[in-house]
Amino acid sequence: MKVFAILLGREIRRHVQMGNIMLPIFFFISVAILYPFAVGPDRILLQKTGGAIIWIAALLATILPIEKLISHDKKSGFLDQMAVRGTLDEIIILAKMAGHYICFILPLLCATFLSAILMGLNDTQMMSILIGLAISGIALSGLSVMIAALTANIGNASALAGMLLIPLSIPLLIFGSANVRDPQFSTLQLIIAMSLVLSVMTPFAAAAALRALREE
Question: Which residue ranges traverse the bilayer (predicted)?
C-alpha cells in the first residue's frame, strides 16, 4: 500500500504539472456551451438530446490525455526503474488508473454539473448523468491506461487512441444515454457490471503491455 500511495501521489503531481486536466475539461465545457447555440432555445429538444451530448463529449474528452499517461514514463526510464526495484506492473497501472480518475474524472463530474445546467436538464437527468459517469469513469480510466500502454511506442498516438477507445466505450455510451432518457435501476446495473468487468480486466492487459514495452 505504501508503494501504491507513493505512485498515486506522483501521478497526481504529474497530471497537475503537465497540464493534463484543463484542456479536456475545457473541451467538454465548450461542447456544452456551443450545443444550445446550434440547436436553438428549444428547451424540450435540449432535454431530449442534452444527456446524450454530454456523454459523447465526455468520451471524446477522455481521448485527449491518453497519449501522456505512459509515454513520458517510458522515455524517462521510470518504468525500467520500477522493474529493477521489483514493483509489480499491476501496482503501477492501478496507481495510474486512480490518478486518472482523481485528476480527470472528478473534475469532469464537476464540469458535468455545469454542463447539465447549460443544457437545461432537470434534476433527475442531472443525477442520472453524474451517477452514470462516476461509475463509468472507473472503466474509462482503465481503458485509457490500457490504451496508453498499448500505444506508448507510437509517436502522436492520439488518433489511434481515439480509434481504440471509442469502440470499446460504446456500450457505456449506449446504456449511459439510455439511463438519462429513462432512468431505471436495471440500466444502471448494466453500467455497473460493464464497469466492473472492464476495471478488472484492463489492469492485467495494461500490465502485460508494459512488460512488452520493456522487452522491445
Answer: 21-38, 44-66, 101-121, 127-150, 157-178, 190-213
C-alpha cell at position 179: 439511463
Q: Where in the chain are the domains?
A: 2-215
Distance CA 14, CA 163 (A): 26
Would you say 8 and 99 are in contact if contact means Cβ atoms under 8 Å apart? yes
8 Å CB contact between 15 and 144 = no
Q: Which pLDDT tens digit goes with each residue over 132-147?
A: 999 999 999 999 999 9
State the Rg of the chain over Cα: 18
Question: 11-29 b/e with 16+ CB inside 10 Å = b?
Answer: bbebbeeeebbeebbeebb
Distance between CA 152 and CA 161 in Å, rounded? 10
Say if CB 65 and CB 24 are below 8 A apart: yes
Cβ atoms within 10 Å, residue 136: 27
Across 42-46, average pLDDT: 85
Q: CB-hemisphere CA count at 13 Å for 23?
A: 12
Phi-psi region of 40 (alpha: psi -120 to 50; beta: other; left: phi over 0): left
Confidence class for position 216, pLDDT limits 50, 70, 90: low
Residue type at 191?
A: I
pTM, two decimal places: 0.89
What distance in Å separates the CA atoms of residue 116 and residue 129, rounded to the nearest whole number?
9
Mean pLDDT throughout 71-96?
A: 84
